[in-house]
């Protein structure tokens, strides 16, 4: 009715445009990384790290938290899980904005193409965060913000194309399918 036409004229007058996602690139030098084995989800002492340790480490890296466990740090005494290795150069790309699932699938395919020759990395990750205050969560159910609004999933892809899929959600949110 009249309300619909009023909204249409408002949006056409104000020329609402789709916002392009913001893309930033950075190179991390001499990054201490956990050693991972695709078949060892729980990790093995002195051989590989677990999925939980990886997700915690990834959070520290993405938030630029120091990994060297200095007692003088007021922010964090976190250190990289063991066993670990030093990666001379790690590439970090952050895309901020609204992304449709098809674009995320396209990104995944492009990342898998990175494992063509020469195989420079043993594994890579793609993390997708939903907005903390998004009204819906998995399965189109209401999203409970409560403390942190957890709402993300993370792919870890190995050079043999095995992968892990990790999901994080709030206490009161419905479990993903």
Automatic annotation (TrEMBL):
MF GO annotations: ribonuclease MRP activity; ribonuclease P activity
Pfam families assigned to the protein according to its UniProt record, in alphabetical order: Ribonuc_P_40
Name of this protein: RPP40 protein
Record-level GO BP terms: endonucleolytic cleavage in ITS1 to separate SSU-rRNA from 5.8S rRNA and LSU-rRNA from tricistronic rRNA transcript (SSU-rRNA, 5.8S rRNA, LSU-rRNA); tRNA 5'-leader removal
InterPro entries reported in the protein's UniProt record: RNase_P_Rpp40
Gene Ontology CC terms: multimeric ribonuclease P complex; ribonuclease MRP complex
Taxon lineage: Eukaryota, Metazoa, Chordata, Craniata, Vertebrata
Gene encoding the protein: Rpp40
């Amino acid at each position: 009715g009249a309300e619909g036409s009023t909204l249409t004229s408002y949006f056409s007058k104000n020329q609402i445009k789709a916002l392009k996602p913001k893309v930033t690139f950075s190179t991390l030098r001499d990054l201490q990384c956990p050693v991972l084995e695709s078949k060892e989800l729980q990790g093995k002492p002195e051989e590989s790290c677990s999925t939980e340790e990886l997700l915690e480490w990834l959070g520290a890296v993405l938030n630029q938290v120091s990994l060297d466990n200095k007692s003088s740090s007021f922010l964090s005494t976190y250190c990289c899980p063991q066993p670990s290795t030093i990666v001379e150069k790690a590439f970090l790309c952050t895309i901020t904005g609204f992304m449709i699932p098809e674009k995320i699938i396209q990104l995944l395919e492009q990342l898998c193409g990175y494992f063509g020759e020469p195989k420079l990395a043993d594994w890579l990750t793609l993390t997708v965060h939903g907005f903390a205050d998004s009204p819906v969560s998995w399965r189109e159910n209401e999203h409970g913000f409560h403390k942190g609004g957890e709402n993300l999933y993370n792919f870890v892809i190995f050079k043999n194309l095995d992968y892990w899929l990790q999901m994080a959600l709030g206490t009161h949110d419905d479990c993903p399918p």
